[in-house]
Every structure is written in structure tokens, then in C-alpha cells.
Amino acid sequence: MKTTTCARIDLVEALRDGRLGAGDAESMARHLATCAECRAASVDLERISCAIREPIERASQLDHLRARTSLLQRASRVAAPPAARTPAFAVLAAAAVLAVAIAGAFAAGRSSAAPERAMVAVHRRVADRLAPRRTTLRPSDHARFDRANDGGVDVVTLTEGEIDVTRSPVAAGERFVVRTRDAEIEVRATAFRVEAAGGRIRGVAVAEGSVEVRYAGFTAVIPAGGSWRANDDAGADATKAAAAVDPSGAASAKPEAPPPIALAPTKEARARHEIVARAPGPAREPVAVAIPAPAAAPIDTPRGPSAEAREFADAVGAVGRGDYDGAAARLDAFTAAHPRDARADEADHLRAIALQRAGRLDEARAAARRYLAAHPDGAHRTAARAIAGD
Amino acid sequence: MKLATQRDGAGREASDAALFAAIADGDLGPLGVLFDRHHENVRQLLLRAAPNAADIDDLVQETFLTASRAAASFDGRDSAGPFLAGVAIQLIRRRRRTFARLRNLLEAVGLAPTTPTRTPEDGASAAEQHEALHDAVGRLSEDRRIALVMVEWQGMSGPEVAKVLGVPVGTVWRRLHEARAELRRSIEEGAR
After folding, report:
1. Residue A307 contacts residue A265 (beta carbons within 8 Å)
2. Which of A70, A147, A343 is opposite residue B27, by nearest beta carbon?
3. Does A74 touch chain B (CB under 8 A)?
4. Residue A58 is assigned to a structural domain of this protein
5. Are residues A225 and A335 in the same domain?
6. pLDDT tens digits along B117-149
7. Which H helix or E strand runs over A260?
8. Interface confidence (ipTM) of the complex
């Protein structure tokens, strides 16, 4: 750097960084107009700033998608919170000692059944100890929900999609509730899944613990292993549900056999595998009502990525590996199998990209046009138009 | 690109603060939304602050993972941009310390890599001068480059940078001045 002669040269930087007061800044600005050396320094600083701010190519949509998928996969594998580390380590150490002891006993030729049972018990205790101690929500990709503290009650309002909830034991005075427009699910220590559509409850499946469902005028407890799916008629609104209960006290419909669900009235008969509802009105006795079986296997606990998520990830992975033909086929199969999935938009767009990279340009154009037709306001419409050549 | 949104009761997109609050409560769903909103900004910051890093994409992901673990410490401001920038910068510095240990180990056995240096050519073209300036940015010490990028690209004030880096604000101004002085020398050498 040239030898400086102007005594105010250092103030050029101070002016740029906003370190001068209003008066000094005005004075320095006037000085810049007359001092060639300070003006040259100012130009250099601007060049440096431009070099730093110079645009760098943005990540491609494919790279973004791939990174997003990877991030969420990594996040779901995050270990238990630090607070649990010390006791968890102690449990693990104890488990290791016990495992060694069991292995020793096994090697000594003793019965194998006891060690197996002991290992299962240890595994469960360790898993329980390592489990998060708070509430974990795992929404489906298209889930829409809000969470708020309503007068001290932790409330999740689900309007669309599915949420898997894992809740550690609720302490005294704590309440956790999942709501839809027409139902409320009060949570005990549990792991369960709630599904809603259009703000209305569609189903509840309980893996562990129990939940109390308040819906269409009745209250019922679903124990572990139980599930329930809303009857479309009953789910329409509480009035229709109440009307579905025969005033004479008879069941409005017969439960399907064997009953797939274990619903029991609050407190009185949780162990009974029957469905009990309380119709609105003071004089009504609890009566049995039919609630259809779940349309699909409701429980999948612990829940990993859904089949749709795996299929989509496989297809994205194929693009990443450069297997563009395979990726296009997978993406085509994905949108055909799951046309209403939230990722169908992405799949259609990625398929056009994969076909283009595979050199199947006519098919790529057709795929891009299909995307534009299916998603005229889609997030990738600009890129799709470019591929389509429109 | 937006793959998902989460909305409040009035149909507005949830704020970054609301998303972080949900993450702090154990809900990982909003992490994807935060990624959609901020990943490009974080990536661009990292590309500038660590131009020689070969694992930028991994650093971007690590930034969001780290931020999700520290979600409870988010101060609730409207945009998570400065918070994520701070996390990203801390990751670069942590990685540098790790690499420094590796480098010391390699130096001990005579295997330390050498940093290529550029020799300015007489009568360099404008494009070459431009490239030389970028190379010079890459050769800045990481402390100086981080201060420069946080101020010039991230638009943070000196006190904000000082807070993120955990150093006195005077240190930030000094690093900034040294970075600029070094780059100005590079500009002048390139012009000769």
C-alpha cells in the first residue's frame, strides 16, 4: 500500500462503518470530495465490499431438496437431550455390566430363556431411560397444525394430516391436548397418532399409554394398542353423532367382529374391549355405538419414515447417483401411487429434470408440461417452463 | 424453494420465533421450514467466510442441526438470520480449531500442506485483478475474513459481530481494518 499522507485517511473506514457522529460524518464526506487519497481509499473499500457481496451461484433446487431431506433425517437421529446424558450413561453402564453377566451365565451352559428375558427387560429399561422426557411431535409432510399454550394447557390444533405424538409422563397439573374442530384428545403418558382432514378428526391410534377422546358428545379412553377411526357420518358434526345414538338405548349399529379397537369409558371399564358413548343430555345412559375399524394398520411405532417418504427419498437418491432413468421411473411411480401427496409437486418437477438429464428431451418437455398443467401455481413453474421450452 | 409452510391461527406464516419455540418443545417439523427460509443465506455466508472449505453443504446442514439443538436460546427476534449466521460462524471457528490440531500434527511429521500463493503479473487485466482480489480474500486469516464477511455481506454492525464472536468490539474493528488493508495491498499489487 502506498505511503499515506492525509491525516484523515483512517476516517474513511470509520465513515463507511458508521462509527462517526453526524457532524464528523458530514465533515468527512466533504473531505472526500476534495482529497484524492481518501477518495481512492474509499473506492478501494467499495471494491472490496463488492468482491464480498458478489453473487455466488445459488444452490439448485435439487441440491436444496437433497440437503433438506438429509437434514431432517439427521435431525431425527439426534440423541437425547444433554440433561439425560449422565443418568443415561449410568443406565447404559449398568446394562453393559448385566449383559456381560448374562453372557457369562449363557456361556456356562445355563438356561437360555432367562437371559433372553433379562436382555429384553434391560433393553426396555434402557430404551425407556433414553427416551426424550418431553413431548415430541412428528407431523406428516402435509400436516397443518398449530401449537399454543391455552391457559396453561399445551394445545396442538390439527387441521390436516397426521401427527405422531410421543409424550413423557404428564406431571401433576400439566395438561396436553390435541384438538380438531370436532374432537379433543386428552393425553396421558403415551405415544399415539392423530389424523385429521378439513379440521375434523379422522382417527386416533395409540401405541403406548392411553388417551381420552372427547368427540361427538361422548368420552372414551383408548388404551395402548387401541385405535379408532371416525365414521364419516358421525364425524360430520356433533349433532349428527348424537343422532346416531338410538334414543332407546340400543346400539345404532353393530360393532364389527372382532372389534379392532379397545375403547372403554373413562375410569369405569378401561379394560373392557367395547365402545362406549355418552349421548348429550342429562338422562342418557352410556350406550354402545359402532365406530368403524381403521381403514389401514394404524400403529407403526416407533415410526420411521413413511413408505411414501422412503419411495420419494429413493427417487431423489437415484437422481443424486446419476441414475436418471431409474429416478424418472421411480418418480413417475410415486406420483401415480400418491397423487395427493404433498411431494407430488416436487416429484413431477424432479421427473422432468431427471428426464432432461437422461437426454430424453421430448419426455422431459412432456413431463414439464404435465407439471405445469397439474400445478399451474407450483413453486417450480418457472423452471418447468424453461424445460418445457414455453 | 418452499416445500412446506406452517401457519398460525390467522393463516399467516409462522414467524421464525414460533418455529424455534416449536423446535425447542421437541417438534422437528418446523426445522424444514426454517431450512427453506434461510438455507441459501447460510450457504452464501459460509461460501464467503470459508471459501476453501470443501464441505460447505455439510456445514449448512450442521448449522441448522446445531441451531435446532440451541433453539431454546433463540432470542425471539423476527428473523433467525443473525442467529443462524452466528451459529454458522461458530462452526467454522470450531472446525478451524480441529483442523489446526490436525495441521500441527502433520507439521510435526513434515507433512503439512502448503497454501498456494498467487504472484501478481505485470499488466494484469481487469478480470485477472478481480480474480486476484477474490484469491486475496481466500488468503485472509479466518478471523479477518469472518469479520469482513459478517460486516460487508451479512450487514451486521461491529457490536453485533463482537457479540457473535465473543470478542471486544475493538477487536472486530481491528480485524476489519487489517483485512481491508491486506486486500488494498492486493489491489495495488494487481494494478502494477
Report:
1. no
2. A147
3. yes
4. no
5. no
6. 444 444 456 667 677 888 889 899 989 999 999
7. none
8. 0.75
